Amino acid sequence: SQTIHQWPATLVQPVGSPLSLECTVEGTSNPNLYWYRQAAGRGLQLLFYSVGIGQISSEVPQNLSASRPQDRQFILSSKKLLLSDSGFYLCAWEEGAGRKSFFGQGTRLTVV
Amino acid sequence: EDQVTQSPEALRLQEGESSSLNCSYTVSGLRGLFWYRQDPGKGPEFLFTLYSAGEEKEKERLKATLTKKESFLHITAPKPEDSATYLCAVDSNSGYALNFGKGTSLLVTP
Description:
The complex is a heterodimer. In chain A, about 0% of the residues lie in helices and about 60% in strands. Chain A is globular, with a radius of gyration of 13 Å. The termini of chain A are far apart. In chain A, strands 2, 4, 5, 6, 9, 10 and 11 form a seven-stranded mixed beta sheet that branches. A four-stranded antiparallel beta sheet of chain A has the order 1-3-8-7, with no helix packed on it. Chain A has strands at about 5, 10-15, 20-25, 30-40, 45-50, 55-60, 65-70, 75-80, 85-95, 100-105, 105-110. In chain B, strand 7 (about 60-65) and strand 8 (about 70-75) form a beta hairpin. The radius of gyration of chain B is 13 Å and the shape is globular. Chain B is an all-beta fold. Chain B has strands at about 5, 10-15, 20-25, 30-40, 45-50, 55-60, 60-65, 70-75, 85-90, 100, 105-110. In chain B, strands 2, 4, 5, 9, 10 and 11 form a six-stranded mixed beta sheet that branches. In chain B, strands 1-3-8-7-6 form a five-stranded antiparallel beta sheet, with no helix packed on it. The termini of chain B are far apart. The chains are: A mainly beta, B mainly beta. The interface of A and B includes residues 59 and 108 of A.
């Protein structure tokens, strides 16, 4: 069966420091992969999606970037974190044409 | 622009007290509507997909229905373990990403 791993679960970083969040999927090949951010009182905001290795689309211009170095690995990065980058970050993969998404357990990022 | 609105924002029920959560949507060409359950500090967990008006799906105490303008998540005789935030999302012709509502936070007390 397919599983998705996301780490770390929590992270406290100072303003101006770099960021790297990693997500890996097992049990499937060539999945569509997504990074979302969830802020308190707001819906899930799509940040990036990828339909294949090296293919990244950005939905919202911001201080973050994403990369997909391997088929089942998706990385969210920042060179210099801002306070406004704090939030709950979720990685997801999509099953086939039905658009059903499966989410990782999330990373709670606090920028101080 | 697609819009997804969930109501109420929060709902408190006594154990056994049935109720419904609403997800109203305005989209250009609905391709699918999704319901997820999210526990605090966790990622959303898939519950249902509905594709066309009149469709219904059931799982234990939950039943999801779909019309041309809204979806309902009916909770029959809820238990405390049903407490969670329930998210609705739509897939439409106007965008690549799922469009999520803000969710309904459900608390079921013994």
